[in-house]
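Pipeline run #58 for the internal structure catalog. This entry was flagged by the ingest filter as a single-chain record with no existing model, so it goes straight to prediction. Upstream metadata was stripped on purpose; only the residue string is passed forward. Reviewer on rotation: M.T. Logging verbosity set to normal.
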Amino acid sequence: MKNIRNFCIIAHIDHGKSTLADRLLEYTQTIKVTEGQMLDDMDLERERGITIKSHAIQMEYNYNGEKYILNLIDTPGHVDFSYEVSRSIAACEGALLVVDASQGVQAQTISNLYMALEHDLEIIPVMNKCDMASAMPEEVEDEIIDLLGCKREDIIRASGKTGLGVEEILKAVVERIPHPEGDEEAPLQALIFDSVFNSFRGIIAYFKIENGVLRTGDKVKFFNTGKEYDADEIGVLKMDMVPRNELRTGDVGYIISGIKTSKEVKVGDTITHIAKPCDKAIDGFEEVKPMVFAGVYPIEAEDYENLRASLEKLQLNDASLTFQPESSLALGFGFRCGFLGLLHMEIVQERLDREFDMNVITTVPNVSYMIYDKQGGVQEVHNPGGMPDPTLIDHIEEPYIDASIITTTDYIGPIMTLCLGKRGELVRQDYISGNRVELHYKMPLGEIVIDFYDKLKSISKGYASFDYHQSGFRPSKLVKLDILLNGESVDALSTLTHFDNAYDLGRRMCEKLKELIPRQQFEIAIQAAIGAKIIARETIKAVRKDVTAKCYGGDVSRKRKLLEKQKKGKKRMKQIGTVEVPQKAFLAVLKLD
């Protein structure tokens, strides 16, 4: 146990975590690095150049004639995947805090750091990309010292591209990070921090042993679910899984016990022996709080059960996804899913398509609101369809967030304008160092879920970083905006929005739908309504045949008779005709701006 070190790499997006991990794996000769970001093994991660899943891998390192086992977890940097980071941190004793030498400390650096400090991890500051022409090592070192209060010589200068400083990082991991504490004689206690589904072997759980020893063939049980299993195979995680006969305290490994159903494995659960169980579970992770809700529906109604199975398998691998069944008039049966943000939602949709071959329709994302009725009762509503009658509502409260935006002074003006447009209130602004400033805002969560992050990146030319956490509910003047097609409400397009934005949003939605809905044989009226009041309208003209073409000369009443006959036909068609809303229209409404 003295020679085990468990650590993770944390940083903001694009600060070079996965590239640095490659160099560490190469230096310790764990694997031969054939292409960049070896640990990002999902196609999606390769294409987008981001880490979506945290990846655990074991390295061996010889230092002063002794062999050390280093368990490394590479984590994502995007705010939507911060739950992955919190789980990785719980399985470690130390963390490498990577800061880009050309960009400095950014919002996600700070929030990940605070998460690590809450778990009492030993922090090793690493300044990455020191070989770049735009690097500002002195200024960035000052920022790190301000942030951590460490000494200048504690900061390791490194480069994931050239391999500079990799040896120093490994030495620092061995010297500075404490070895795992635990008792090998005590009953077994192992924390599950991740799981994956394998179609041949069932569910594979990844764990870290806090106390005790686990051997192949042991009878084990999962503490919270109470289910019992045989440990058919246990082992450690290299690039592939490597079986071992026993794992001791402090080890990180995997267990295969032929579990078929995904409900039986809960991330954050504790594994213990049946014969000599531990008396209490390890404190797992806090429950995940979804920020954005959207309905996910199968395109074909008969795929509903397949979609459920796919979501359950995906939830194993992505514990921050939550879902429950719901139905919609326009789309049939589906699921109301909770995501940590818009990128998370997009990735889940992509993964459903690629890994499970599920084609789905996603409704307009929204957040959860508290609705107080006149009797003093309260209910939580996730989608506009679940709203009670407006006459019964006393007031509605919406979730607010505390947002922190770090940027350079050049972009303060446009960013403040953006936040005010999203109903934000400036709490304070702090100057960090040089020309960098941190803005603190209170903002409604509903305003930022759709396009806030993209706009922030574009107006600051990528130099603003954004982080937020929920801060409770506040009363707000919200209305339900309905979209009607020929007088029929399309529930998948209805949204809850602030009264001040409703007219503008209604008008834009009608204009957008007019472009996207194909013309029919009859006229289609697209209306936006608040309650019974129509606030915007567009009309899609009917496709008509020129019925008067055969009339030449003669009295005008002949033409009128034909036109009247056509008008009657169109009217009758309108009564029985239905309007198909294409999938493109649902997606376009999300990207209205």
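catalog note: The chain has a mean pLDDT of 83.
catalog note: The first strand starts at residue 4 and ends at 10.
status: ready for reviewer M.T.
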